[in-house]
Amino acid sequence: MTKDTFERALGAQAQASPSVTAHAPGGDGQVLAAQQKISGLGFDWLVMALSAVFVGGLYLDGWAHNHGRVDQSFFTPWHAFFYSGYILVAIVFAGATTLNMLRGYPLTLAIPDGYRLTGIGLFVFAAGGAGDMAWHQIFGVERGIEALYSPTHILLGLGIGLVVAGPLRAAWNRHDEDPCWRTLAPAIGSLGLFLANLIFFMMFYFPVTVQLGTPGTGDGYFHNDVGKAAGLAGAIITAAGLTGPLLLVLRRWQLPPGAVTTVLGLAILGAAIVDYERPLMAWLALGMGTAAVVIDFLSWRAHPRRNPQTVRWLAPAIPFLLYTGYYAVLLPTAGTTWSVHLWTSTIVIPALACWLLSFLLLSPQQPEPGA
Q1: What whole-number distance in Å separates Cα of residue 267 and Cα of residue 179?
Q2: I need a surface site. Which of 201, 228, 233, 338 has the fewest CB within 10 A?
Q3: DSSP conformation class of 310
Q4: Chain centroid offset of residue 17 CA
């Protein structure tokens, strides 16, 4: 592939940076006028699309693990798809950075705007992948919850998170006068993929993948006191994991209608894919997805960017509605062995936890000095 062909393939809406200058490679000190830099909205679209392949590969590999489709080998078709997503993102990142350097930008400025942590994430993921191959060869393939929390898999998850959040970071640093779907779509998709990656590592207590108070995907989940405490703790962690990043973005932008539904929907859809052939999971995902539509409307009306105090009630409303939507489907279908005291607690306590979380995003007003 030639340089010109690669530039066209990137399709990156090259973002001019007239204030940036670069020295000629010959070291004679001659300053060149900065050329267009591969960065901007078009590049965000490309990275977001390839990140979707990347995270899709993660869930495909998770499905294979859950259904006994793996063996003791690292070289599986599921890993091939997963790591292909990584390679595609790495090629685009390295190609854009290299072309920007050829256009006269030093390395520190050649990296597309907002993507420095993406480069770090690519290295972290590569280290995790190499370590994972060695780990599998030495200790074998992990089973059950071990497959989520082995050291190399946590390293892979960290790398994925840093990579897929690139379009979101790039948009965060721009001065968008008109935040709308046209300008924010890659950032919205990026946040949804970031949350889907996060939820993947919560699948053993995310309520769509393991139904609270029912047998779930294992025998006797959440039935004894330890299991009940684990289910409640998982509900709190899940609520905070979904609510915190979403509120942070809502404080940055007035998101267009449908954005919150998309972000939460991607995370919920990912959880349903892990065992997609179980009809109940689809209905539970639909229940939480319907709640996401309501949250979308409330977020649009609240406008946390212009009215910061609305974060106080919006933060607890998010988990309250999500778990209410969940139980609205679970109770009349599979039912629950939990008492009403316990299952209502998994609605109320996560809501209280997220209300406390809102104080990190919006500190109480402090008294004026000397007052």
Answers
A1: 23
A2: 233
A3: G
A4: 29
Q: Which amino acid is at 242?
A: L
In this predicted model, what pLDDT tens digit does every residue of 104-151 receive, in sequence order?
Answer: 899 888 999 999 999 999 999 999 888 888 887 788 767 767 778 888
What pLDDT digit, counting tens, does each position of 314-335 carry? Answer: 999 999 999 999 999 999 988 8
Q: What backbone phi and psi angles, to 5 degrees, belong to 331?
A: -60, -45
Question: d(Cα 306, Cα 300) in Å, to the nearest integer?
Answer: 11
What secondary structure does DSSP assign to 8-76, as a single string? HHHT--PBP-TT-EEE-TTSS-PEEEP--BS-SHHHHHHHHHHHHHHHHHHHHHHHHHHTT---S-S--
Q: Which two tokens stand for residue 37?
A: 């830099």
CA distance 2 to 153: 36
Nearest-CA neighbor of 163 among 48, 82, 65?
48
In this structure, which long-range contacts are made by residues 21-28, counting pairs with CB atoms below 8 Å and at least 24 apart in sequence? 22/103, 22/104, 22/105, 22/106, 22/109, 23/104, 23/106, 24/104, 25/104
Amino acid identity of residue 362, one-letter, is L
Q: What is the pTM of this model?
A: 0.85
- Give dist(CA 78, CA 75) in Å, integer: 8
